[in-house]
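Memo to structure team: turn this sequence into structure tokens by end of day. - J.P.
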Amino acid sequence: MKTWDINGISLDFDFTNPEHVERVETAFEDMAEREKNFPQTKRISEKIRLYCMIYLDFFNKVFGDGTAEKIFAKTPVSIASCEEVYADFLRFVNAQSEEIKRKRTENFGKYSPKKPNYKHKKHR
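Reply from structure team:
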């Protein structure tokens, strides 16, 4: 289990736990669907609110209801702050993924059978 520290709070997330990963997958799917069906409005302020709600709902779906409010308790909610927190989460998940790959290679690579080195010789 790894801990994601963001804006003064700590959240547990384990990229090897299928339930944790499924919550992220579902939240990604929901984000994509909401962006695809984004309502047309001429008011920029309304667009900003709607985009921010997509990000806030993402964090609530991944970590549980009320999490977004905790993440942004000391930070004003804006497109910039939402995108920065989201990008930080993606970096956190990516770092876990890379660490898992590295450990698997390290742990299982030494036990894998060596592949024979077949070099094709041209017959003359």
